[in-house]
Amino acid sequence: MTPVLEIMSAHRSIRKFTDRAVDADLLTSLITAAQCTSTSHHVQAYTIIQVTDPNNRQKIADMAGPQPWVAEAPVFLVFCADLTRLVYACRQNTVEPETGWAEQLLVATVDTALLAQSLMLGAESAGLGGVFIGGIRNDPNLVCDLLHIPEHAFPVFGMCLGYPNEDPAPKPRLPLNLMFHQNRFPETVNYRELAAYDDIIQAYYEKRAPKLRDRTWTRQIAEFTGQVIRPHMKSFLAQKRFFKH
Ligand SMILES: Cc1cc2nc3c(=O)[nH]c(=O)nc-3n(C[C@H](O)[C@H](O)[C@H](O)COP(=O)(O)O)c2cc1C
């Protein structure tokens, strides 16, 4: 184990924070370091917006769940996939921008996610904890209105950061042989391994939240996958000029 691997392996989402403020210089260092993450074609297709206005925080917290930690966390960041500078670069060079392609949506979203995960890891290395907030996509237009996010940019997720005031055990991940393979994709899902993993996750939840019954991984994932989630995203992305082709 290297020190970085130890931090990665100890990750768990944190939703309760102490009152201790996060130093502005520390936040700047975390963002600057996260910017060094690989980026497709060096496009750096992202923008981070820190939300400090308590009214806007509360509105986003309510809309996202409610998720009270969005209002309470010492730091709340919104990560935007952002093609505005790319469009500007085209105009600057009298090139007609080709926007609205699925590939660009992937490029900008992947870039944003990689940046955010680097920031999370850096934050954890500095003793902070945090949680991603995909719930902001419940009403992405509200986030765009509150934060003045223009066309060619959209909020992918938020992130709460602060000093942890809880210490949950890390959530067990899939056994390696279910998700790492040599040379070819497996022919079938290894249902025996998956059943064993269900038992592990069930035991984890029984310890963490004894009231929760039947919290196997496959049960949770079936519930998640068996419902339509945020059907507005296609038209929202089209409206933001991310989804045409
Ligand atoms: C893109 C993304 C969006 C997420 N959105 C939320 C969210 O809205 N609210 C929340 O409490 N957790 C959210 N999470 C946290 C996941 O639920 C959590 O990472 C997962 O259950 C694994 O738990 P762990 O992070 O404690 O290991 C999100 C995670 C990711 C990567």
Instruction: Give helix and strand order, one letter per element, not per position.
Output: HHEHHEHHEHEHHHH
* Rg over alpha carbons: 20 Å
Task: Report helical residue fraction.
Answer: 40-55%
The 3D shape can be described as globular
| Contiguous runs where pLDDT drops below 50 for at least 5 residues | none
Quickly give the structural class.
Answer: alpha+beta
> End-to-end span in angstroms?
45 Å
For this structure, what is the CATH class of the largest domain?
Answer: Alpha Beta
Identify the CATH homologous superfamily of the largest domain. Answer: NADH Oxidase
Widest sheet: strand order? Answer: 1-2-4-3
Strand content: 5-15%
Give the cofactors and ligands.
Answer: flavin mononucleotide
Mean pLDDT level: 96
Kindly report the CATH topology of the largest domain: NADH Oxidase
Q: What's the architecture of the largest domain in CATH terms?
A: 3-Layer(aba) Sandwich
What does it look like?
The chain is α+β, with helices and mostly antiparallel strands and 245 residues long. It has 2 domains: 3-168, NADH Oxidase (3-Layer(aba) Sandwich), CATH 3.40.109.10; 176-217, no CATH class. It is 46% helix and 11% strand. The protein has 11 helices and 4 strands. The protein has helices at 3-9, 24-34, 54-63, 68-72, 84-92, 102-125, 140-147, 176-179, 191-208, 217-225, 233-239; strands at 46-50, 75-82, 129-133, 153-162. A 4-stranded antiparallel β-sheet has the order 1-2-4-3, with helices on both faces. The longest helix has 24 residues, at 102-125. It is globular. The N and C termini lie far apart (45 Å). Residues 11-13, 15, 64, 67, 131-135, 157, 171 line the site of flavin mononucleotide.
